[in-house]
Every structure is written in C-alpha cells, then in structure tokens.
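Researcher: Next entry in the queue.
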Amino acid sequence: MISLAKLFTYPIKSMQGTQLSHALVQETGLTWDRHFMVTLEDGTFITARKYPEMLLFTPTLTQHGLYLQAPDQQHAWIKLDDFSELNYPTEVWGNHFTAKIAPDAVNQWLSHYFPHPVQLRWIGEIPQRKIKKRPEHPLSFADGYPFLLVNEGSLHDLQNRCPAGVAIEQFRANLVVSGAEPWQEDHWAVVRIGDVIFDVAKPCSRCILTTVNSRNARKHPQGEPMRTLIQFREAADGSGDIDFGLNLIARNSGIIRVGDDFSVLQTKPPRLYNEKVVEEIPYVAPCAAPIEKAVEIEFAGKRFTGNNQQILLEQLELQGHSIPFSCRMGSCGSCRLTKLSGSVKALNSRALSESSLLSCCCVPEAGPLKLELN
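Model: Structure for this entry, 374 residues:
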C-alpha cells in the first residue's frame, strides 16, 4: 500500500523548510509554500543555486507575518501589513509578474548577508503569477509548478547507487510517498492523496541545488547526487533534463495528512532515459602552480578583464550577468553561449562545439573572448 509519508513547506524560496503533519492543498500549492522570495532590486529572483548560504536561514510563520532568523542568529520580524500596497515587476525563470516588497528596514537587514542589495517579496493575497503552460492556474514563487512529489523507493535506489550520502531534504519536495516500487512514479498520470486529486504535469528536472547539503550549505565536491543521476536519469530526448520526482497540479482543495492513502488513478507511458557512464576528467599533476593570466571578455555589449583560471559562468556572474543555468555540470545545456571570437578550454567533451560552449564547463584561454546568449 502506498501512502503519504512526509509533508514539507518552504515559506521563503531557497530557505529552510518546515515538516508538517497535515496541510491545506490550494491552487498555488500547500498553504504558504514559497509565498516569499528574495530578489535583486530589479525584481530578478535569486536562490540557493547561486547563494547556498540561503539554506541556513530559518523562516517561521507567525500570526501576522514572518519571523526570519539568519545563520548568525540575528533575526527580523516582518508583518504582512507592512509589505508595499503596490505590486512591483518580479521575475522567476523568465516568467514576469508582480509582487509586493518588504519594508526598507527589513531589506537593508537582509542585504547585509549578500554581496549586493536584495529585497524580500511576498506573492500577495491574490497571486498575479500563472503557470506558463497552464495559464489558468495561479502559482507561487515555486520554479514552475505548485507541488513536487518524491517517491521514497526511488530515493532508496539512488542512495544505493550513489557513493555519497543523499538526504530527502536535498530535493526540497512537498510530498513524499512510501510503499511504491523504485521509479514506479514514471508511469503515474493522475493520483489521489486523501480526497485531493492531482494531475502529473511532468517529471521534475533537477539542478545543482540537489548537490548542496541543506544543513551546512556546502556543495558536494564531486557534484553528487547529480553525478549519479546523470548516469541513468538523463532524458533520452536530447533535452538534457535529469529527472527525479514529479511536478503536480491539484484539481481540488482539501486537507491532506501524513499517513493518507495514495492511489494511482491513471497511468501513462514513462519517459525514456539514457544509460551511460559519466566521463571522467583525468587528473594530471602540474609541474608548477598554474600562472594566472588576464583575458579580455565581452558579453552583452560589456567588456571586462577576466582570467584563465575560473570557469566562465562564475566570471560572468561576478560581473552581474544573469546566465540561465540548472545542473552546472555540462549536462542540461541551459548555460550555452555562442562564441564569436577568442578561445576557451573545455573541461569535458560535451562543453564545446564549433560555435557554442557551455559556460559552466569552460575556462577562458585567450582573448579577446566575445560571447552572446545562444
């Protein structure tokens, strides 16, 4: 028998979550799940993918708003009534909508923990954001869909395959079910938990955040468990998706509880995945410490002086450029750029083609290096 084993909500996107015994399912997700988010001053979202230390912040819902504790134990109280009355332009993964901004005092306090000014935003009582492919459905600040489900059986199979420890918290799921066979969820199309029916929107494509330990905010040095997942969960359609879990949309509202029965109402053919061995990068002991050299780089009409030691994606981010990315391992292809001039050194065979490159796996070699979005 399959049942709901665990429930999680994440009030502030990319910060610590709360495990619950029961929760209310709404159109936008579980109540208060990802209703708050940290952004740049222009409304562009930021997450623990780039700032892993965000995972060490602890938000707690209060009667009137939020209590937010920072890693150094400093804290702030934020009342919902103190958020801006007006809605301001906000963006998540190219999805543009509006949201409310926290008071200046809160944003100034929060900015002390980042290398640039940030703002805390609230989705508001009536969310303005919609699911891109399902515009009739409102959405919180979640990446793309209201609910994320993980099968414990698949987690255990991954743990057996992976040389590193893997915790359920690394996948930031809302719903965790037990009693199903490993990867049985690949066949699910419509499911029910208690009295609530969910449609499976798609498999959940994973990113570099799964490689970060949520307890200490440290990335795994070998990129686990993504390195293991890519060996058998990379989509065969060439998209570069590395799947683990399911994105869901609820058909109705209702309370669900840990221990509720889980039923599969409809199945479908599973997505196909490649089986492969991850390419190993041979280690060559250097004869001497590498010499850092300056490399002139131009991107989006702006020039700066980079170096020949750091991956290109990181150098562009340090200059304030927002480059799409997901896995940061050279698999998903999200960070692909077009190379117009100059040369780079690729860290694996997939990272470089005749005219384009994966910025997460390439290091500048000689300039002037001129790049543009693919």
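Model: Helices lie at 104-111, 152-161, 226-229, 312-318.
Researcher: Noted, moving on.
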